[in-house]
Design a protein that fits this description.
Blueprint lengths: L10 E5 L4 H12 L3 E6 L6 H11 L1 H4 L2 E5 L5 H8 L4 E4 L6 H6 L1 H21 L4 E7 L22 H20 L3 E6 L2 E2 L12 H10 L5 E3 L5 E2 L2 E2 H13 L9 E4 L5 E2 H13 L11 E3 L14 H7 L7 H17 L8
Helix pairs in contact: 1-2, 1-9, 4-6, 6-7, 8-10, 8-12, 10-12
């Protein structure tokens, strides 16, 4: 992956570096000649993601990477990770709405207390800028479409509340300590290395995993729930643009990161089924199983990305259909063989 945004070499910290989004950011930075420290405790990230980066970029680029296994709930670990960093890209979090409903204590400890630790450590290390992952979940029950950054509603889950808390803490640290902090509200990011297994897997990897395992694909609700799905390369681009922007309006702001288009879960099911069927013809006739809606889910999500475009220069370069094609190829390569499938 080569984003081509980074011109000068610098020292970066990426938290959640072994996770899906974090590992894609790490790879892009290393390909662009940067020095990177990665922090992760492997609660949701995977060592295999780091191995995939190492194999993809080679020994020379990998030599500019240092990994710290540790937890953002430990302030001393955060201080060690921030030491010497110019930019911090904070991706570490527990990102599941259902998990936050089941275990709000742990979700709050990681997402809020851990974020504050990162801000404190970044302040002490005199980091130039912190960019952190927020979420479209902060829009809650706000009915307006598309979602505009200044119009948010009532939170529908503890997860959404933690992400809104992050935005408020970022404002406070920016005001009190003159820190440059930028938030990115992710809309349903998907792409390679996203884990298809586990009780809290996101919908796209979960469905690819189900198809390749001959399991039932389940849709919560009637399938007319819609989402603004966004390929991970677009999120990587947004992080680098936010870190490096010289626009004075950027610090202290939050930006939607999405493609600005939405599809229903029924449409998504048909697209994924057809993509899997090109490798695995038995998938062609599959139908989903419908069940009750999940607590805490918003019904429709569509982003207005004009603020990110105008302030940061963000332009999503990978549309949903192309992203899904890339993901289908990746899951076939990395999961199909494990499930005993022979390419057709």
């Amino acid at each position: 992956m080569s984003i081509g945004i980074v011109q000068e070499r610098a020292h970066w910290l990426v938290t959640g570096a072994a996770g899906f989004i974090g590992s894609n950011i790490v790879e892009a930075l290393l390909v662009n000649g940067q020095t990177v420290v990665g922090l992760d405790n492997f609660s949701t990230g995977h060592r295999e993601n780091l191995k995939l980066i190492q194999r993809a970029i080679g020994a020379n680029a990998w030599s500019r990477f240092r990994f710290i296994e540790g937890d953002i709930r430990d302030l001393d670990v955060c201080r060690e990770a921030c030491r010497g960093a110019r930019y911090v890209l904070h991706q570490a979090a527990l990102g599941s709405v259902p998990l936050s409903i089941k275990d709000p204590v742990t979700t709050t400890a990681v997402n809020v207390d851990g974020f504050v630790n990162i801000l404190v450590a970044a302040k002490e290390a005199r980091v130039s800028r912190v960019v952190y992952a927020s979420s479209s979940a902060v829009y809650g029950d706000a009915p307006e479409l598309p979602k505009i950054e200044d119009h948010i509603g009532k939170s529908l889950s503890p997860y959404a509340t933690t992400k809104r808390s992050n935005e408020l803490y970022a404002d406070a640290f920016g005001s009190c300590y003159a820190m440059e902090i930028i938030g990115l509200r992710y809309f349903n990011i998907f792409g390679p290395r996203q884990d298809p297994e586990g009780a809290y897997a996101a919908v796209i990897p979960k469905w690819f995993g189900a198809f390749l395992s001959d399991d039932t694909v389940r849709i919560n609700g009637d399938g007319e729930i819609s989402r603004d799905f966004c390929f991970v390369d677009n999120a990587v681009q947004a992080n680098l643009l936010a870190a490096l922007s010289r626009n004075p309006v950027a610090p202290g702001n939050v930006f939607n990161v999405a493609c600005g288009q939405r599809i229903t879960l029924n449409e998504l099911f048909r697209i994924i089924r057809d993509l899997v069927a090109t490798h695995f013809p038995q998938a062609a006739g599959r139908q989903p199983e419908y069940g009750p809606e999940r607590a805490g889910d918003i019904h429709h999500s569509l982003a207005d990305v004009s603020r990110a475009r105008d302030v940061l220069g963000y332009l999503p370069t990978v549309a949903v259909q192309e992203g899904l094609q890339r993901v289908a190829d990746w899951y076939w390569t990395h999961w199909g063989a494990q499930k005993g499938h022979v390419p057709q």
